[in-house]
Design a protein that fits this description.
The complex is a heterotrimer of chains A (about 290), B (about 260) and C (about 325).
Chain A lengths: L1 H31 L6 H18 L4 H24 L7 H23 L14 E4 L2 E4 H23 L1 H11 L1 H6 L4 H23 L9 H16 L4 H21 L5 H15 L14
Antiparallel strand pairs in A: 1-2
Helix pairs in contact in A: 1-5, 1-8, 1-9, 1-10, 2-3, 2-4, 2-8, 2-9, 3-8, 5-6, 6-8, 9-10, 9-11, 10-11
Chain B lengths: L3 E10 L2 E11 L4 E5 L6 H8 L7 E6 L2 E2 L5 H6 L2 E4 L11 H6 L10 H6 L1 H21 L15 H14 L4 E5 L7 H18 L2 E5 L3 H7 L2 E6 L2 E6 L1 H6 L1 H8 L1 H7 L1
Parallel strand pairs in B: 3-8, 3-9, 6-7, 7-8
Antiparallel strand pairs in B: 1-2, 1-4, 4-5, 9-10
Helix pairs in contact in B: 5-6
Chain C lengths: L1 H27 L2 H26 L7 H18 L4 H23 L4 H21 L1 H4 L5 E2 L5 E2 L2 E2 L3 H23 L2 H11 L1 H6 L4 H27 L1 E2 L6 H14 L4 H17 L7 H15 L3 H24 L5
Antiparallel strand pairs in C: 1-4, 2-3
Classes of the chains: A mainly alpha (about 290), B alpha/beta (about 260), C mainly alpha (about 325).
Pfam families (chain A): BPD_transp_2 (PF02653)
Keywords (chain A): Amino-acid transport, Cell membrane, Membrane, Transmembrane, Transmembrane helix, Transport
Subcellular location (chain A): Cell membrane
Chain lengths: ~290, ~260, ~325
């Protein structure tokens, strides 16, 4: 029973992080219709920025985290300028391939900048444990769940109840009309990218203490995030969360009870099952057609 | 048994009801027109007729067969042809190749055939080519056969699309605002073309149009839609005199003009 | 008609010239360059296949390298573990690759494009995991060695030079068949599906069936590339068929020129030889590579073949405008 509680909490914690990564991906998809294949690398950059601010610059933890998140925001904005904007007139296929290529550059650039030796990034919440139901649960795991909940709530408030969120949704729903109405669509799209990057950044900062931080962590995370969105319901926010939790739990429980070597296959297998049997995922894809 | 029967069809998109309990029939060989203000559900109706959407309620029956949940290419294969509002053609293919695509339902492309009986494949190809060239000549477009689509005028593009559809020898032709963007001379030519095609191929036609001149002169029966519901149905004379239709769409000025 | 004839003519000319020069190659350059050329030819086979999937039918496949891997491992396992004749191994490899692509297509191509793209990423990753873990059968991460060379009537293709001729013939045959498909109803249908899926289905095309055919054909080509790889290197390991390799195939197609046969081969060669030309970049190579391809997408979305085509039509326009100028006042 003890083991199970620990596994469940770990699964939910990991799932929360996957949900954040998936949310970053979904934010871009719903705002721009772009399938960002570099999503995993965004998460990796978040972790690596954390490595720089926490380990290499040695800043006090709260400042280091904030700085890393801010760097991610700026990175998202630059990504919009450097990748999305020049390609906005091209076909979706071209844009997707562009994200694949930039992802490759990001991964190898990170390898160049930070080297190939993995880093041990300490948790902002220390490495203590709490005892819950006779099980030792790491504070980091609990904090990850908490932070994710806070971020999701913040995102909800931003999108549904602020004027910025309202205009961002307008741009997402009907780009040509928003443009004609005089909305600063470029700026709003840049905001979407910045928000997506920040979410990915948090995912990276939260997942790195669970494993380690290195330039190649992005690929595995990308796959989990993609599987999460498909399982939960492509393009939907509740879908990203539900899917993320599902994938996290499946990975932890699967690694424990079935096999550790094939744990990634489980997630992929679940994705295929959903694609074949219920492609719209748990929550279904939002009906809005992308023109 | 009616040729085409729309039976109590409703279509919901999320919270929006695009069509509400619409029924009408089209007899074989009939020229039927569907008119109504924008947003009345006319394009939705055509999408349902070609399998691009499924009715939420009701059924669509073509030649006795329920096509409500059939796939688009199957419906096209049954003899339905559709002309789009803005002339959808394949940009990377030439005019001739575009028209040859009209054969896709009757002669589906097959890799096995290509690999194992190249002779048969090339015979098929030659036949397709011949048929396409003949149709282009028929439409007066033969000189454009090798051209890229991008170099054609708007009116010519429409004609190429029509040639493509006719190559498939449809029994029922669905036209979605074919006169849009054409000047009056081109509209006249389009109308006589439709008359000729109808006679030559025993076509039944469902025409969605705003150009009342065209509708009233060509249609034998008209169905009027408004806000997704059927407002009226009848002959051109009946519909032009119908009070509710005049109020909702045609306008009082039409009555006095028609008299 | 003229443009098509001109295109055909230039293609045939290019082929003939290349074949002529190509058959002399091994005598002119050292073995290192022949080996590199062989690698480029193997990639050409794969990219010609990817051209059907992406260039014509517009489907992004991130699993192309793993499909090639299936062909390669089929030959490896067949010859090393079961002592099969390498030719038989080739057939099994191509069939496996094709069959896998067909099944994947049936299951996934009825869905929207982005589902397919993401799923193929998962497939490639899963392939690597499975191959790396089934140590008994596949040799795990260390791979399988000792694959015999292909032989015809006692003549073994066991050196770079000998393999070169085999690879050359193979790629030429693949290219000719690809051209045959391109100019058939099937090829046009694939192009139509990418251009306008809606219009394609309303023309009576079974869009999913066309996509599945494109994927299957692409898979068979990938299988050919895989068996060629196995019979060239005489050794297979999972890392040769990773997602990075799939990405490289995509880059080759994009850089060379999507939807052209010449472009597929051109891209394969350029990207294969690129590390040689950019050797001075050292470990920054892959970073620059990604950025270069990105730049290519900005500036020349039709790839190198597109640039040549553009230059060709400009040159032709120059010639014809001179002609037109002569008659300008003779109305």
């Amino acid at each position: 029973m003890q083991d199970l509680v620990q596994l469940l909490v770990s699964g939910v914690a990991l799932g929360s992080v996957y949900a954040l990564a998936a949310l970053g991906f979904v934010t871009i998809y719903s705002a721009t219709g772009i399938v960002n294949f570099a999503a995993g690398q965004f998460v990796m950059f978040g972790a690596m920025f954390g490595v720089t601010t926490v380990l290499q610059l040695g800043l006090p933890m709260p400042m280091a985290i904030l700085l890393a998140v801010a760097m991610m925001g700026v990175f998202g904005f630059l990504f919009y300028l450097g990748v999305h904007l020049p390609l906005r007139t091209q076909s979706p296929v071209t844009v997707v391939i562009a994200t694949v290529m930039i992802g490759l550059s990001m991964q190898n650039g990170a390898n160049l900048i930070w080297g190939s030796v993995p880093f041990r990034l300490p948790s902002p919440f220390g490495d203590g444990t709490l005892t819950v139901f006779d099980s030792a649960i790491s504070t980091h795991a609990l904090a990850s769940i908490g932070i994710t909940a806070v971020l999701v709530a913040a995102l909800y408030v931003l999108m549904q109840h602020s004027s910025l969120g309202r205009v961002m949704r307008a741009v997402a729903q009907d780009f040509p009309t928003a443009r004609l109405m005089g909305l600063p669509v470029g700026l709003l799209l840049a905001c979407s990218w910045a928000i997506a990057a920040v979410l990915a950044g948090f995912a990276g900062l939260l997942i790195a203490p669970m494993w380690f931080a290195d330039a190649h962590m992005g690929d595995a995370i990308a796959l989990k995030a993609f599987a999460a969105t498909i399982i939960g319901g492509f393009g939907s926010v509740p879908g990203a969360i539900a899917g993320g939790l599902f994938v996290g739990l499946a990975e932890i429980l699967g690694a424990s009870y079935i096999s550790s070597a094939y744990k990634d296959l489980l997630c992929f297998g679940a994705m295929v099952v959903f694609l074949v049997a219920r492609p719209q995922g748990i929550f279904g894809e939002p009906i809005s057609e992308r023109g | 048994m009616a040729f085409l029967e729309v039976k109590a069809v409703s279509k919901d998109y999320g919270g929006v009801r695009a069509l509400s309990d619409v029924s009408f029939q089209v007899k074989q060989g009939e020229f039927h027109s569907v008119i109504g203000p924008n947003g009345a559900g006319k394009s939705t109706l055509i999408n349902l007729l070609t399998g691009l959407a499924r009715p939420t309620r009701g059924a669509i029956v073509f030649e006795g067969c329920d096509i409500s949940s059939r796939k688009t290419h199957e419906i096209i294969g049954m003899g339905v042809g559709r002309i789009f509002q803005n002339g959808r053609l394949f940009e990377r293919l030439t005019v001739l190749e575009n028209v040859m695509m009209g054969h896709s339902a009757r002669k589906p492309p097959s890799l096995l055939r290509l690999a194992y009986s190249p002779r048969n494949a090339s015979v098929d190809q030659a036949e397709s080519r011949e048929a396409a060239l003949q149709m282009l000549e028929r439409f007066g477009l033969a000189q454009y056969a090798g051209r890229q689509i991008g170099s054609l005028s708007y009116g010519s593009r429409r004609l190429v699309e029509m040639a493509k559809v006719m190559v498939g020898r449809p029994k029922l032709l669905l036209l979605d605002e074919p006169a849009a963007g054409l000047n009056s001379g081109e509209v006249e030519r389009l109308m006589s073309l439709l008359q000729v095609l109808r006679k030559e191929h025993q076509l039944s036609v469902v025409l969605i149009e705003h150009n009342m001149n065209m509708v009233m002169r060509l249609a034998e029966r008209i169905t009027v839609l408004n806000f997704g519901k059927k407002l009226a149905e009848g002959t051109p004379a009946q519909v032009s005199a119908n009070e509710t239709v005049l109020a909702a769409y045609l306008g009082e000025g039409y009555r006095s003009a028609a008299l | 008609m003229n443009k098509k004839n001109a295109k055909n003519a230039s293609l045939i000319l290019a082929l003939v010239l290349s074949l002529g020069a190509a058959s002399l190659l091994p005598n002119a350059v050292g073995e290192y360059w022949v080996r590199l050329t062989n690698a480029a030819l193997i990639s050409s086979a794969a990219v010609l296949g990817l051209n059907f999937v992406l260039g014509y039918a517009g489907q992004i496949s991130m699993m192309h390298a793993s499909v090639a891997g299936m062909g390669a491992y089929a030959v490896a396992i067949g010859t090393v573990k079961f002592g099969l004749n390498p030719w038989l191994g080739c057939l099994i490899g191509m069939a496996t690759a094709g069959a896998f692509s067909y099944v994947t297509g049936i299951l996934l191509l009825r869905l929207k494009g982005h589902y397919f793209a993401l799923a193929t990423l998962g497939i490639n990753v899963s392939f690597i995991i499975v191959v790396s873990n089934l140590v008994e059968i596949t040799g795990g991460s260390n791979g399988l060695t000792g694959i015999p060379a292909l032989t015809i009537l006692g003549f073994a293709f066991d050196s770079e030079r000998r393999f070169y001729y085999l690879a050359l013939v193979a790629v030429v045959l693949l290219a000719v068949f690809a051209s045959y498909v391109r100019h058939s109803q099937l090829g046009r249908s694939m192009i139509a599906v990418r251009d306008d899926e809606l219009a394609a289905s309303v023309s009576g095309l079974n869009v999913t069936a066309v996509k599945v055919t494109a994927l299957t054909l692409g898979g068979v080509y990938a299988g050919v590339a895989g068996v060629m790889f196995a019979l060239h290197a005489r050794f297979v390991a999972p890392e040769d068929f990773s997602t990075s390799t799939s990405i490289v195939y995509l880059a080759m197609l994009v850089v060379g020129g999507e939807a052209t046969i010449l472009g597929s081969i051109l891209g394969a060669f350029v990207i294969t030889f690129l590390p040689e030309w950019l050797r001075w970049l050292g470990s920054a190579y892959l970073v620059i590579f990604g950025l270069l391809v990105l730049l290519m997408l900005f500036l020349a979305p039709r790839g190198l073949a597109g640039l040549f085509g553009f230059a060709w039509s400009k040159w032709k326009a120059q010639l014809s405008s001179k002609e037109a100028g002569k008659w300008r006042f003779s109305k």
